[in-house]
Amino acid sequence: MFNKTEIEQQVAEFLLQIKAIKLQPNNPFTWASGWKSPIYCDNRITLSHPSIRTYIRQQLSVLVQEEFGSVDCIAGVATAGIPQGALVAQELGLPFIYVRAKAKEHGTGKMIEGEIIPGQRVAVIEDLISTGKSSLQAVESLRDAGYNVAGLAAIFTYGFDAAVENFKNAKCRFSTLSNYSALLKYAEQHGDIKTADLEILSKWRESPSTWGQ
């Protein structure tokens, strides 16, 4: 049985433990977009930890089945969603494809790599959801190729309102193993952050594009 609260907390613990997630409310990071952020998430680090990698593979596989039902294929989103998606496909014994960030500039000019079979029901795997725009570009590419996208599953989401709205507008379901709220709850309970920092971390999510300016 998929115990969502328990899994949210376990994944949050793992990500903090291996420093896949770093919290620095008083010394913020600068994202590629230029946004200032008190959190940095790099879920690729999970791949270097076999027991954690296995747990995430298993739970993403269960999440796909619980949330989206039977699917014919798993698709990973370039680049960080590719290894996670391949692991899920292996766990479920399903074909795997992946979606490029942009079409190849040589050869066939493909956006999707692997055997493309229009009409199949596909679950998309991503490592992280911020605004959801890059993930939804992959969803659109799959739909353009004739796939029926059952939904998208990811390891972690920041929980931005913009992401919820973008997925809603795209008519695409999504679900994640853990999220920013669960992370803050775990971090406070286990002394990873001070209670005084909680307000700073909470305010960031309310307006991430202007926070720290």
Automatic annotation (TrEMBL):
Catalytic reaction equation(s): orotidine 5'-phosphate + diphosphate = orotate + 5-phospho-alpha-D-ribose 1-diphosphate
Required co-factor(s) are:
Mg(2+)
Which Pfam family, any one of them, does this sequence belong to? Pribosyltran
Q: Which InterPro entries match?
A: OPRT, Or_phspho_trans_dom, PRTase-like, PRTase_dom
Gene3D superfamilies reported in the protein's UniProt record: 3.40.50.2020
Which family does the record claim for this protein?
A: Belongs to the purine/pyrimidine phosphoribosyltransferase family. PyrE subfamily.
The protein depicted here goes by the name Orotate phosphoribosyltransferase
Which species is the source of this protein? Mucilaginibacter agri
Q: What is the lineage of its organism?
A: Bacteria, Pseudomonadati, Bacteroidota, Sphingobacteriia, Sphingobacteriales
